[in-house]
Design goal:
With 467 residues, this protein is of the alpha/beta class. It folds into three domains: 215 residues, FAD/NAD(P)-binding domain (3-Layer(bba) Sandwich); 107 residues, FAD/NAD(P)-binding domain (3-Layer(bba) Sandwich); 114 residues, Enolase-like, domain 1 (2-Layer Sandwich). It is built from 14 helices and 24 strands. It is globular. The chain starts with a strand and ends in a 9-residue tail after the last strand.
Length: 467
């Protein structure tokens, strides 16, 4: 066994780790970065990059099928070649992953180790035959799909977001257990490829974190395309069937199960913290395995930080990258940035996408804030009408006293880009009139946000979005 000393050790080459390695190396620090499997983490390999590549292919298939409504003749049936779709995905993922690994391996002052890192003490990590030591250690180990202990789970074959991306044949009938972001995106994509799709959700509505009007619109969009949605699945149970897998949704014996050829589990994520030897380092985790950190991402042990999905402070690529920015700012730039400075924002990349920032209407009501709200259906947005993509709506909430924007939801074409003009004004802590009086480009989705803000009305004591 060889012992090697560094100024800093980074475990995990996801979104935060490599960028932090780059900053440390540029500052002259001797840094080691350890990756046990695939460089780039979840985003590059099994998350954002591959799924959005697949969603792009699904969008093309959908447009080809609906081409006649645009005056375009498409001869013959539209067929999705799953092998070709995944080959395109693999090429894009491979370029990103290989480019990142090459950059790290060629970086001055940086040594790359491939293998599984485990703590020996709060300053020591074992990777194979090497014992790495450093006064500062940064954990960027990410997360993985949760496999719930539901009835029958050990008796049937099932897919996760990872194995679904490796299929060679299109499922005839894909049942998706879980009606949140991952499940919704895959449901629409694979239905557009030609699979029959059923979404099974335990709760009373899809995307339960969103307001009820948002959830309702999402369900309407999916059902309009032919996706079946089964809500209030109080007793999900899986069992083998001649067709593949039977997904039972009620506890009674006379329920009507969904008979599927394939089942995807999309019920959440869990952190990759159970095999790091955190107990040997004394690093505290919560009841779900997330590493406990403070506002500057320091763990319970001095000299150890946690970034990205493993700290429970955000489950997105952009929050993981912001974790890097916070750590680097505090350690290298004398800039006291904090996690609590961050405004919640994210997207659901179905078609049309949902973009969210700040508080929901439900949260505003619960907080008892005197507020104003403006809404506009996408059927009154010229850009959406011209594109033939007028599903969805916009909703913006404003503090009635300070005039600061509290939050917004944009479910509609281009919403994932348009949301940022709201996000930036929220970070600037400028009043909503900053956007209301701005002149936006026509024809765009963003140009209607000033219109929404010009038609704000007091938020009534109760509303349909509250439940």
């Amino acid at each position: 066994m060889s012992q090697k000393h560094f100024d800093a050790i980074i475990v995990g080459a996801g979104q935060a780790g490599p960028s932090l390695a780059g900053r440390f190396a540029q500052s002259g620090r001797k840094v080691a970065i350890v990756e046990r499997k695939l460089f780039g983490g979840t985003c590059v390999n099994t998350g954002c990059t591959p799924t959005k590549t697949i969603i792009a292919s699904a969008y093309v298939a959908h447009k080809a099928r609906t081409a006649r409504s645009y005056g375009i003749a498409v001869e013959g049936a539209v067929h999705a070649d799953l092998k070709a779709i995944l080959s395109r995905k693999d090429e894009i993922v491979g370029k990103s992953r290989d480019g990142l690994e090459s950059w790290l391996r060629g970086m001055e002052n940086c040594t790359v180790f491939t293998g599984h890192a485990r703590f020996e003490s709060s300053t020591e990590l074992r990777v194979g035959d090497d014992l790495l030591t450093a006064p500062e250690i940064f954990l960027n180990v990410g997360g993985r799909a949760e496999v719930p202990d539901m009835a029958g789970i050990k008796d049937v074959p099932y897919l996760t977001n990872v194995s679904l991306l490796e299929l060679e044949e299109l499922p005839k009938h894909l049942a998706i257990v879980g009606g949140s972001y991952v499940g919704i995106e895959f449901a629409q994509a694979f239905h557009r490829f030609g699979s029959e799709v059923t979404v099974v959700e335990m709760g009373p509505r899809l995307a339960h974190r969103e307001d009820a009007d948002v959830s309702r619109n999402i369900q309407e969009i999916l059902e309009k395309e032919g996706i079946r949605v089964r809500l209030n699945a109080e007793c999900i149970r899986l069992e083998r069937d001649v067709a593949g897998v039977a997904v039972h949704v009620n506890c009674g014996e006379d329920d009507q199960p969904t008979l599927a050829t394939h089942v995807l589990l999309a019920v959440g994520r869990r952190p990759n913290t159970d095999d790091l030897g955190l107990d040997k380092a004394g690093v505290a985790v919560d009841e779900h395995g997330y590493i406990q950190v403070d506002d500057q991402l320091r763990t319970s042990v001095p000299g150890i930080w946690a970034m990205g999905d493993c700290n429970g402070k955000g489950a997105f690529t952009h929050t993981a990258y912001n974790d890097f920015e916070i750590v680097a700012a505090n350690l290298l730039d004398n800039d006291p940035r904090r996690v609590s400075d961050r405004i919640v924002t994210y997207g659901l990349f179905m078609d049309p996408p949902l973009a969210r920032v700040g508080m929901t209407e439900r949260e505003v009501r619960k907080a008892g804030k005197p507020a104003l709200m403006g809404t506009r259906p996408m059927t009154k947005v010229n850009r959406a009408i011209e594109k033939g993509e007028s599903d969805g709506f916009m909703k913006v909430l404003v503090d009635a006293e300070s005039k600061l924007i509290l939050g917004a939801s944009i479910l509609g074409t281009g919403g994932d880009e348009a949301i940022h003009c709201i996000t930036d004004v929220m970070y600037a802590r400028a009043p909503y009139t900053t956007i209301q009086r701005a002149v936006h480009i026509h024809p765009t989705v963003s140009e209607l946000i000033p219109t929404v803000l010009g038609d704000l009305k007091p938020l009534e004591p109760s509303g349909q979005s509250e439940s």
